[in-house]
Amino acid sequence: MIANADTPVVQPPQCSDEEWALRCQLADCYHLVDFMGWTETIFNHISARLPGPAHHYLVNPFGLNYTEVTPANLLKVGLTGEKLEESPYDANPAGFALHSAIHEAREDVHCIIHTHTTELSAIAQKKDGFSHNDFYGAQLFGRVGYHAFEGITLFADEKPRMLESLGDKHVLVLRNHGIAVGEGSIAKAFFLLWTVQRAAEIQCLADSMRGEDTVLGDEVRTKCSDLTAMLIRESGFATKFFNAMVRKMRAERGPGW
Protein backbone atom coordinates (compact mmCIF):
# COMPACT_ATOMS: atom_id res chain seq x y z
CA MET A 1 0.00 0.00 0.00
CA ILE A 2 1.49 3.33 -1.02
CA ALA A 3 1.32 5.87 1.78
CA ASN A 4 2.40 9.46 2.13
CA ALA A 5 5.50 9.85 4.26
CA ASP A 6 3.60 12.06 6.71
CA THR A 7 0.62 9.74 6.98
CA PRO A 8 1.02 6.86 9.45
CA VAL A 9 -0.83 3.63 8.78
CA VAL A 10 -0.99 2.59 12.42
CA GLN A 11 -4.18 2.93 14.44
CA PRO A 12 -4.26 6.29 16.23
CA PRO A 13 -4.91 6.01 19.97
CA GLN A 14 -8.12 8.06 19.76
CA CYS A 15 -9.60 5.81 17.05
CA SER A 16 -11.88 3.02 18.25
CA ASP A 17 -11.37 -0.52 17.00
CA GLU A 18 -14.73 -0.34 15.22
CA GLU A 19 -13.81 2.84 13.37
CA TRP A 20 -10.34 1.54 12.51
CA ALA A 21 -11.79 -1.63 11.01
CA LEU A 22 -14.11 0.52 8.88
CA ARG A 23 -11.19 2.72 7.82
CA CYS A 24 -9.14 -0.31 6.80
CA GLN A 25 -11.98 -1.74 4.73
CA LEU A 26 -12.71 1.61 3.08
CA ALA A 27 -9.03 2.02 2.16
CA ASP A 28 -9.16 -1.49 0.65
CA CYS A 29 -12.21 -0.41 -1.35
CA TYR A 30 -10.36 2.61 -2.77
CA HIS A 31 -7.45 0.38 -3.74
CA LEU A 32 -9.79 -2.14 -5.35
CA VAL A 33 -11.47 0.54 -7.45
CA ASP A 34 -8.01 1.56 -8.66
CA PHE A 35 -7.03 -2.09 -9.21
CA MET A 36 -10.11 -2.60 -11.38
CA GLY A 37 -9.30 0.48 -13.47
CA TRP A 38 -12.40 2.41 -12.42
CA THR A 39 -10.72 5.56 -11.11
CA GLU A 40 -10.94 9.05 -12.56
CA THR A 41 -7.46 10.20 -11.50
CA ILE A 42 -7.91 12.10 -8.18
CA PHE A 43 -11.64 12.65 -8.71
CA ASN A 44 -14.77 10.76 -7.64
CA HIS A 45 -15.37 9.58 -4.12
CA ILE A 46 -16.32 6.67 -1.88
CA SER A 47 -17.82 7.35 1.53
CA ALA A 48 -18.63 5.15 4.50
CA ARG A 49 -20.90 6.20 7.32
CA LEU A 50 -19.52 5.94 10.84
CA PRO A 51 -21.59 4.26 13.57
CA GLY A 52 -23.78 6.54 15.64
CA PRO A 53 -26.66 8.99 15.21
CA ALA A 54 -24.60 11.94 13.98
CA HIS A 55 -24.37 10.89 10.29
CA HIS A 56 -20.62 11.43 10.22
CA TYR A 57 -18.78 9.69 7.42
CA LEU A 58 -15.33 8.93 6.04
CA VAL A 59 -14.19 10.11 2.61
CA ASN A 60 -10.94 10.40 0.65
CA PRO A 61 -8.60 13.38 0.95
CA PHE A 62 -8.88 15.43 -2.24
CA GLY A 63 -5.71 15.47 -4.29
CA LEU A 64 -4.52 11.96 -3.44
CA ASN A 65 -4.59 9.08 -5.88
CA TYR A 66 -6.71 6.16 -4.75
CA THR A 67 -3.49 4.18 -4.22
CA GLU A 68 -2.38 6.83 -1.71
CA VAL A 69 -5.48 6.54 0.47
CA THR A 70 -4.72 4.88 3.80
CA PRO A 71 -6.89 4.06 6.82
CA ALA A 72 -5.22 6.90 8.72
CA ASN A 73 -5.52 9.70 6.15
CA LEU A 74 -9.22 9.22 5.38
CA LEU A 75 -11.16 12.32 6.40
CA LYS A 76 -13.91 12.27 8.99
CA VAL A 77 -16.54 14.82 7.95
CA GLY A 78 -20.03 15.98 8.85
CA LEU A 79 -23.02 16.39 6.58
CA THR A 80 -21.94 19.85 5.45
CA GLY A 81 -18.45 18.60 4.61
CA GLU A 82 -16.73 20.15 7.63
CA LYS A 83 -13.69 18.25 8.86
CA LEU A 84 -14.22 16.78 12.32
CA GLU A 85 -10.55 16.00 12.91
CA GLU A 86 -7.37 17.80 11.92
CA SER A 87 -5.95 16.89 8.54
CA PRO A 88 -3.61 18.60 6.06
CA TYR A 89 -6.08 17.65 3.35
CA ASP A 90 -9.52 18.85 2.34
CA ALA A 91 -12.34 16.88 0.80
CA ASN A 92 -13.62 17.26 -2.75
CA PRO A 93 -16.51 19.77 -2.49
CA ALA A 94 -18.21 18.14 -5.47
CA GLY A 95 -18.94 15.10 -3.31
CA PHE A 96 -20.83 16.70 -0.45
CA ALA A 97 -24.16 17.36 -2.13
CA LEU A 98 -24.42 13.76 -3.30
CA HIS A 99 -22.97 11.89 -0.32
CA SER A 100 -24.40 14.02 2.47
CA ALA A 101 -27.88 13.95 0.95
CA ILE A 102 -27.99 10.17 0.79
CA HIS A 103 -26.26 9.55 4.13
CA GLU A 104 -28.69 11.88 5.88
CA ALA A 105 -31.86 10.52 4.27
CA ARG A 106 -31.19 6.79 3.84
CA GLU A 107 -30.57 4.89 7.06
CA ASP A 108 -30.13 1.69 5.02
CA VAL A 109 -27.17 3.12 3.06
CA HIS A 110 -23.82 3.06 4.84
CA CYS A 111 -21.48 3.22 1.84
CA ILE A 112 -21.76 5.25 -1.37
CA ILE A 113 -19.48 4.84 -4.38
CA HIS A 114 -19.48 7.35 -7.21
CA THR A 115 -17.70 6.59 -10.49
CA HIS A 116 -17.87 7.56 -14.13
CA THR A 117 -16.00 4.98 -16.10
CA THR A 118 -16.19 5.24 -19.88
CA GLU A 119 -18.87 2.54 -20.09
CA LEU A 120 -20.99 3.93 -17.27
CA SER A 121 -20.77 7.47 -18.63
CA ALA A 122 -21.86 6.18 -22.03
CA ILE A 123 -24.93 4.50 -20.51
CA ALA A 124 -25.68 7.64 -18.48
CA GLN A 125 -25.74 9.65 -21.70
CA LYS A 126 -28.30 7.38 -23.39
CA LYS A 127 -31.93 8.38 -23.00
CA ASP A 128 -33.05 4.81 -22.25
CA GLY A 129 -30.28 4.18 -19.71
CA PHE A 130 -29.62 0.59 -18.75
CA SER A 131 -30.86 -2.33 -20.79
CA HIS A 132 -32.02 -5.32 -18.76
CA ASN A 133 -31.45 -7.99 -21.39
CA ASP A 134 -28.11 -9.40 -20.25
CA PHE A 135 -27.18 -11.37 -17.14
CA TYR A 136 -26.02 -8.34 -15.16
CA GLY A 137 -28.48 -5.84 -16.58
CA ALA A 138 -31.34 -8.14 -15.58
CA GLN A 139 -30.10 -8.03 -11.99
CA LEU A 140 -30.60 -4.24 -11.99
CA PHE A 141 -34.23 -4.35 -13.13
CA GLY A 142 -36.31 -2.05 -10.91
CA ARG A 143 -33.25 -1.05 -8.89
CA VAL A 144 -32.09 2.03 -10.84
CA GLY A 145 -33.12 5.65 -10.47
CA TYR A 146 -32.29 8.40 -12.98
CA HIS A 147 -31.40 12.01 -12.17
CA ALA A 148 -31.28 14.79 -14.76
CA PHE A 149 -27.93 16.52 -15.18
CA GLU A 150 -27.78 19.90 -13.44
CA GLY A 151 -24.04 20.48 -13.72
CA ILE A 152 -21.33 19.59 -11.21
CA THR A 153 -22.99 18.49 -7.97
CA LEU A 154 -21.83 21.36 -5.78
CA PHE A 155 -25.02 22.94 -4.54
CA ALA A 156 -27.26 21.97 -1.65
CA ASP A 157 -30.45 22.92 -3.47
CA GLU A 158 -30.01 19.86 -5.73
CA LYS A 159 -30.17 17.43 -2.78
CA PRO A 160 -33.95 16.98 -2.61
CA ARG A 161 -34.16 16.39 -6.35
CA MET A 162 -31.40 13.76 -6.22
CA LEU A 163 -33.18 12.02 -3.35
CA GLU A 164 -36.45 12.09 -5.25
CA SER A 165 -34.71 10.55 -8.27
CA LEU A 166 -33.15 7.84 -6.11
CA GLY A 167 -36.30 7.00 -4.14
CA ASP A 168 -35.87 3.65 -2.39
CA LYS A 169 -33.42 2.34 -4.99
CA HIS A 170 -29.71 1.65 -4.59
CA VAL A 171 -28.35 2.75 -7.98
CA LEU A 172 -28.60 6.36 -9.16
CA VAL A 173 -27.70 7.17 -12.74
CA LEU A 174 -26.55 10.77 -12.93
CA ARG A 175 -27.54 11.45 -16.52
CA ASN A 176 -24.77 12.72 -18.82
CA HIS A 177 -22.35 12.11 -15.94
CA GLY A 178 -21.94 8.76 -14.17
CA ILE A 179 -23.45 6.68 -11.39
CA ALA A 180 -23.63 6.36 -7.63
CA VAL A 181 -24.37 3.13 -5.81
CA GLY A 182 -25.29 2.87 -2.15
CA GLU A 183 -25.63 -0.13 0.11
CA GLY A 184 -25.63 -1.20 3.74
CA SER A 185 -21.91 -1.96 3.89
CA ILE A 186 -18.70 -1.35 1.97
CA ALA A 187 -18.63 -4.93 0.68
CA LYS A 188 -22.24 -4.75 -0.53
CA ALA A 189 -21.67 -1.42 -2.27
CA PHE A 190 -18.56 -2.73 -4.02
CA PHE A 191 -20.40 -5.83 -5.24
CA LEU A 192 -23.25 -3.67 -6.53
CA LEU A 193 -20.76 -1.40 -8.31
CA TRP A 194 -19.14 -4.44 -9.94
CA THR A 195 -22.57 -5.62 -11.15
CA VAL A 196 -23.40 -2.17 -12.55
CA GLN A 197 -20.03 -1.87 -14.26
CA ARG A 198 -20.33 -5.33 -15.85
CA ALA A 199 -23.83 -4.49 -17.09
CA ALA A 200 -22.50 -1.31 -18.69
CA GLU A 201 -19.57 -3.07 -20.35
CA ILE A 202 -21.77 -5.78 -21.85
CA GLN A 203 -24.40 -3.31 -23.02
CA CYS A 204 -21.81 -1.12 -24.74
CA LEU A 205 -20.36 -4.11 -26.57
CA ALA A 206 -23.76 -5.58 -27.49
CA ASP A 207 -24.94 -2.24 -28.87
CA SER A 208 -21.87 -2.10 -31.12
CA MET A 209 -22.67 -5.47 -32.73
CA ARG A 210 -24.96 -6.32 -35.62
CA GLY A 211 -28.15 -8.24 -35.02
CA GLU A 212 -31.13 -7.96 -32.73
CA ASP A 213 -30.94 -8.51 -29.00
CA THR A 214 -32.82 -11.35 -27.34
CA VAL A 215 -35.21 -9.42 -25.12
CA LEU A 216 -35.95 -10.77 -21.66
CA GLY A 217 -39.43 -10.59 -20.21
CA ASP A 218 -40.15 -8.58 -17.08
CA GLU A 219 -40.94 -11.77 -15.14
CA VAL A 220 -37.43 -13.12 -15.69
CA ARG A 221 -35.87 -9.72 -15.04
CA THR A 222 -37.76 -9.38 -11.75
CA LYS A 223 -36.72 -12.88 -10.71
CA CYS A 224 -33.04 -12.07 -11.36
CA SER A 225 -33.24 -8.69 -9.63
CA ASP A 226 -35.04 -10.00 -6.54
CA LEU A 227 -32.69 -12.94 -6.15
CA THR A 228 -29.58 -10.77 -6.41
CA ALA A 229 -30.96 -8.25 -3.92
CA MET A 230 -31.71 -11.07 -1.49
CA LEU A 231 -28.22 -12.55 -1.87
CA ILE A 232 -26.61 -9.18 -1.17
CA ARG A 233 -28.71 -8.33 1.86
CA GLU A 234 -29.35 -11.68 3.52
CA SER A 235 -26.12 -13.65 3.12
CA GLY A 236 -22.39 -13.22 3.33
CA PHE A 237 -22.16 -13.31 -0.47
CA ALA A 238 -20.90 -9.74 -0.90
CA THR A 239 -18.37 -10.07 1.91
CA LYS A 240 -16.95 -13.26 0.40
CA PHE A 241 -16.67 -11.48 -2.97
CA PHE A 242 -15.03 -8.38 -1.48
CA ASN A 243 -12.50 -10.39 0.54
CA ALA A 244 -11.65 -12.55 -2.48
CA MET A 245 -11.01 -9.45 -4.59
CA VAL A 246 -8.78 -7.97 -1.87
CA ARG A 247 -6.76 -11.21 -1.81
CA LYS A 248 -6.48 -11.16 -5.60
CA MET A 249 -5.31 -7.53 -5.57
CA ARG A 250 -2.68 -8.20 -2.91
CA ALA A 251 -1.45 -11.33 -4.65
CA GLU A 252 -0.97 -9.44 -7.93
CA ARG A 253 0.43 -6.21 -6.47
CA GLY A 254 2.73 -7.84 -3.99
CA PRO A 255 3.66 -7.20 -0.36
CA GLY A 256 2.44 -3.99 1.24
CA TRP A 257 -1.08 -4.09 -0.16
Automatic annotation (TrEMBL):
Domain of life (superkingdom): Bacteria
Alphabetized SMART domains for the sequence: Aldolase_II
Pfam families: Aldolase_II
Ranges for domain Class II aldolase/adducin N-terminal: 24-204
InterPro entries on file: Aldolase-II_Adducin_sf, Aldolase_II/adducin_N, Aldolase_II/adducin_N_sf
Protein family per UniProt: Belongs to the aldolase class II family.
PANTHER family registered for this protein in UniProt: ADDUCIN, PROTEIN HU-LI TAI SHAO
The protein's name in its UniProt record: Ribulose-5-phosphate 4-epimerase/fuculose-1-phosphate aldolase
Organism from which the protein derives: Azospirillum rugosum
